[in-house]
Every structure is written in C-alpha cells, then in structure tokens.
Write a structure and sequence with these properties.
The protein is mainly alpha-helical. The protein contains five helices and no strands. The chain has one domain. Keywords: Cell membrane, Ion channel, Ion transport, Membrane, Metal-binding, Sodium, Transmembrane, Transmembrane helix, Transport. One of its GO terms (biological process) is cellular detoxification of fluoride. GO terms for molecular function: fluoride channel activity; metal ion binding.
C-alpha cells in the first residue's frame, strides 16, 4: 500500500514540476534556473509543513516521499549550476547555489515551525 501511495504522489509531483518549471521559464526566461529554484523551494516548504504537522505514515508516503520527491529535483539543480559555470556565468552559478540551499532551508524551517505550532 505504501508503494502505491508513493507512486500516486510521485506521478502528480512530476507533472506539477513540469508545469511549474515550464510556466516560470516562460515568464522569467532561461538566463537563470528560476523554474528549478521555484519547485525546489516549494517542495522544501511542503515537506517542512508535513514534518511539522507530524502527519501519519500514509500521508508522509503520499505527500512527502512521493509528491515532494518527484516535485523537487536536486540533480537538475546541479546540472543548471554546472551549465551556468561552464557558460562563464560564475556569479549566477553562485547565486543559484546560495539561493537554492538558503531559500530551501528557510522555507522548510519556517513552515515546519508554523505547522508544529499550529
């Protein structure tokens, strides 16, 4: 049952990642990986909220492992950063690393605290 919940959450998360990434790229352009940053920070926040709310095993499997696991993408973050550095856009590459990690941790921490408090 847990594997099925992860599969269902993952299917929805993967599709949402594609939709959000495409929409953000369309609005913000491709000079900076705003789409990847958006989905990763969003996923970190959702995971923080779930963990803070102490949801049960089934919800954690569906939403945490499945949905957030498919929504977020560490490998694409790495690839985007490498491409920025390879293209000589060192400042953008560094900003991508700091923003992705910093905003992701901030979103997780704030939503974790909020949902733990509520």
């Amino acid at each position: 049952m847990i594997a099925l919940l992860i599969l269902m959450g993952g299917a929805f998360g993967a599709v949402l990642r594609y939709v959000l990434d495409t929409a953000v790229k369309k609005r913000a352009g491709k000079a900076f990986p705003w789409g990847t940053l958006t989905v990763n920070v969003l996923g970190a926040g959702i995971l923080g909220a779930l963990h803070g709310a102490s949801v049960g095993t089934d919800s954690e499997a569906l939403l945490g492992t499945g949905f957030c696991g498919a929504l977020t993408t560490f490998s694409t973050f790495e690839l985007d950063t490498v491409h920025l550095f390879q293209d000589g856009r060192f400042l953008r590459g560094a900003v991508n690393v700091v923003a992705s990690l910093g905003l992701g941790l901030l979103a997780f921490t704030l939503l974790h605290a909020l949902f733990r408090w509520v």
